[in-house]
C-alpha cells in the first residue's frame, strides 16, 4: 500500500492540481493565524522577562512595596536577615529621550559603588578599565554618566562621550554615554532600550532622593552554589519583618504576574485565531470529500482486490497528512511575517494599556515548530477523518457503481440542523442555570454558536434554494442547482458562515465598544485643556510637574479654575492599579465620574470625607460594591476605605480607584501633580490657548492638549489596540473564500458531461460563466445571511458575557451600519471573485466532452 501511495501520488496531484493547492493554502492560512498569535503572546511575555533577567538575573528574591517607592533605610532590615548574603537597592524610571524621533528608555539606578552582581555592567566596566577610558568612580562623580546597551547605541549612532537629553515629568537633564552594555550576551530576550546609572544620580537628577523601588537580594550558598535555605522560608520571614505593605517575589513570580496581566488579552487573540483553524477544517473536509468522490472507483477496486478498511483509511489520511505538512511548511513563514507585521501594533498596546516593556524582537522556540505541525497535520487528519471512514465502511460494489450523495446529504440536513440548534440551546441553558459562575463559560457559548451555525447550512441550502421558481438558464437556475448539489455546496456555505460570524460579531463588538467609549469620554472629559508631560504615561507617579507651574497656570486670565491629579500604582487584589487623587469639590466635578452604582450626591460627599470611588472593572474583579471596604496597601500599613460609588471606566481592565486630593495627601504626603486640567472662561478658544501655552513653555517637556484633540488621540489608541484582530478576520475570510473557489472547481470538474450537454443544447460560454458566477453569489449570500445571525449572537456573547467576565466593562449596543455595509459588500465581492476562475474553467468546456466519462 505504501508503494501504491508513492506511485499514484503524482498522478493524483496532476488531476486535481487546483484542489490540492487550495487545500494547502487553507491549511497554511490556518496555521499562520494560530502561529502568529502564539508568537506575539510568547514575545510579549518574553520581553517582560528579558528586562527582569537583564537587571535582576543574579537575585534570588526581590522586595517591593505594594504602594510604589519606599524609604531606602529598609535596606538595612533586609541585610539583617542571617541568610541574606548580598542586597542592593534599585530605582527604576521610564524616561523620554528627547530627539526628533523620541522614544522611552528604562533607566535603572544601582549602587555602582557596591558589590553589584550585574554581569553586563561588570563586563563593560572591565573593558573600559583595560582601555583606560573610565575609572570605577567616574559613574559616581561625573554627573549624568550612563551605560546604555550596545544595540541601542548602534541604532542611535552613539558612542562613549555621546550626549542626549531625557525627561521625566518637567525635569529634563542631559546624559553622557559612558559604557556600552553587552546585554544581548547575558539576556538575549531583553529589550535594547534600557540604561544603567548610579542610584544617587538617578534619584538626584530625575527622581526622589532617599526613595527606592526595589531591593534585590542574594542568599547565602553552600559550596555547590545552592542556597542554604528554601527561598519560601526567607520570603515568609522577610514578609513578616517588613509588614503587609511589602511583597517578596522571585523572578518566576514576576513573570507570572505579567502573564496574569495579559491573560485576557492573550486568551482573546488565541480564541480568534482558532476560528481561522476551524474554517480551515471545513476546507480540508470539502477537498477530501471531493477527492474521494472522484476516486471512488479506485477505492472500490482496491477493496475488491483485498485491501482492508484500515488500509484504505490509512491511504486517505496519509494523503491528507502530506497536504497538511505542505500547508505547515507554508504556514510557518506566513505566521512569522504576520506576527512581524503586527509587532509594532501589539507593542504599542502593551505600553499604552498594560505599561509593560515593548516587544523589540520575536520569540520563536523550537516547540512552535511542533505546534505548527500539530495544527497543520492534525487539522488535516481531523478534516479528512470522516470522509475516510465513510469510504472505508462502504461495500466495494457501491464504490464501483455510480452513487449519488444527494439523497444522503438531504437526509442528513434536518438532523444536522436539529443538532446545531440543540448544541446552542443546551449550552445556553447550562450557562443560564450554572455556567455563568464559570469564567470561561463565555468562550464555550461562543464555540457553541460557531458550531451550531454551520450545522444549519445544509438545511438552509436545501430549503431556501429549492423553493425558488425556475424561470430560465440564469441566476435563479444557479441558485436552484445549489440545492441539488448539497453534498458539495453546504460545506462551503458552512465555512463562509463561520468566517462571517466572526467578522460581523467582532465588528459589532468593536463598533459598540468604540461608540460607548465616545459617549463615556463626552461625559468624563470635561476640562478644556489637559496638561501633562510626555513621560507621564510610562513614568507614572515619578513623572511630576514643577510646583510653580500650577500657580502660573491658575493665574492666567483665561482660566476659570484648575484641577490637579496625583497618581500612584498600588497592588490591590494581586494586581497593580492606579490610585489617583483629584479635587472632588470642583464645580460640576461629579460629572467626571459617571456612576454605575451609588447615588451621585451621597457618593461624592462620602468620597470627599475619606471614601473611595472605584471603577467598574475593579468592582467586578474584586466583587466590591457600594458600602464595601477597599484595602489600600501602604508602606506603614493598610488603609480600608469605604466604597462610596462605582463609576464607569474604559481606560484599563485592571481597574482604578479615585480619592479626594486631601485624602491622597494624607496617605503619601505633599507632592506636585502629574496632570492638570484647565477649565476656561466662557468665550476662550481652547485650541488657540493650547497653542499659545505650547509656545510659552516650549523649553519645558509639557503637552497641552485640547478637549477635542484628547478624544481623537484616545480613539486612535483604541483603533490601534484592535488592529491585530482585523488581520485575523481577513485571514479567516480568505480561507472561506478558498472554500468557495474549491467547491465551484469541484462542481465544474465533476459536471463536465453536464456542461458539455449545455453547450450542445446551445448555451453560450457567457451563459455558463454567468451560471457559475451566480453559484458563487448564491453561496456568498447564504453564508452572509447565516453569518449575520451567528455574528449577532456572537456579538451578544462578546459584549454581555466575555467582556464583563474578563474586562469588567459594560458596553452599550450600537450598530455600526457603515462598517457592516462595507463588510457586506466586501464579502459578496470576495464570493464573486472566488467564483471567477471556476466559472472561466466551466465556460471553456467544449460540447465534445459529452462523449467522455466524468473525471
Architecture overview:
The chain has 855 residues and is α+β, with helices and mostly antiparallel strands. 59% of the residues lie in helices and 15% in strands. The chain has 32 helices and 21 strands. Strands 12, 13, 14, 15, 16, 17, 18, 19, 20 and 21 form a ten-stranded mixed sheet that branches. The protein has a six-stranded mixed barrel with strand order 3-4-8-5-7-6. A hairpin with a 6-residue loop joins strand 17 and strand 18.
Q: How are the secondary structure elements laid out?
A:
Blueprint: H1 2-15, H2 17-56, E1 61-65, E2 70-71, H3 74-79, E3 84-98, E4 103-110, H4 119-131, H5 138-141, E5 145-149, H6 150-156, E6 163-168, E7 171-181, H7 183-186, E8 194-198, H8 199-205, E9 211-212, E10 214-219, H9 231-242, E11 246-249, H10 251-261, H11 263-294, H12 296-304, H13 309-341, H14 343-354, H15 367-393, H16 396-400, H17 406-433, H18 441-455, H19 457-466, H20 475-484, H21 486-524, E12 529-532, H22 536-539, H23 547-554, E13 559-572, E14 575-582, E15 595-597, H24 600-608, E16 612-615, H25 616-622, E17 629-632, E18 639-647, E19 657-660, H26 661-668, E20 675-680, H27 686-696, E21 703-706, H28 707-721, H29 723-750, H30 752-760, H31 765-806, H32 817-843
Parallel strand pairs: 4-8, 5-7, 14-19, 16-18
Antiparallel strand pairs: 1-10, 1-11, 2-9, 3-4, 3-6, 3-10, 5-8, 6-7, 12-20, 12-21, 13-14, 13-20, 15-18, 16-19, 17-18
